[in-house]
């Protein structure tokens, strides 16, 4: 089960890294269309694997730097029992406790906070940089496209913006107090399972966003639904 927590931590950052790659791709399509070939052939594997490497790095970092130890178990033992009525040694856990009993820094846990923050913020830097560049150059660059393609590019940009807002709201904002609280020596007692459960909301929301904003996706989805509806028999016969 500890591996499950590590995988979750990896997917947490993988989602944002995947959106960062999409921003880079839309940025290249809009500003440097000749570079699109870099996303073809082996480029697909390279760019497609980037989010997985980022997620793997974050998962390895939290496993290495936040692996349970005796001090962490003793520190959290009473809290786990009071909140969950469970023995901490029987619970899969990742503990981030930046300070010891003497208020000295526990460097392993602190290094994960720094590493995790750098990993996540670097993805947001890519997203914000590409987003600002696309927004500032969009009107000029879109003149090179046909009117239908121009409209499609604008819809893709809007969809990407919404795509990064959604995981920021349901992943990053709820988890920020949980990660920064120990570093700031803030005491809190809440059940954090709801934050983990929010990860399951992302796939359907992501698909719905694209279908609502990008008309081509919406047309294809509507056509598929209509085809399935028409293929159903209008009556049944039994012998």
From TrEMBL:
The keyword Transmembrane applies. Keywords: Membrane, Transmembrane, Transmembrane helix. The keyword Transmembrane helix applies. The chain crosses the membrane at residues 6-32, 44-67, 111-132, 160-180, 192-214. InterPro entries: 7TM_GPCR_serpentine_rcpt_Str. It holds the Pfam family 7TM_GPCR_Str. It comes from the Eukaryota. SUPFAM superfamilies: Family A G protein-coupled receptor-like. PANTHER family: SEVEN TM RECEPTOR, SEVEN TM RECEPTOR-RELATED. This is Seven TM Receptor. The lineage of its organism: Eukaryota, Metazoa, Ecdysozoa, Nematoda, Chromadorea.
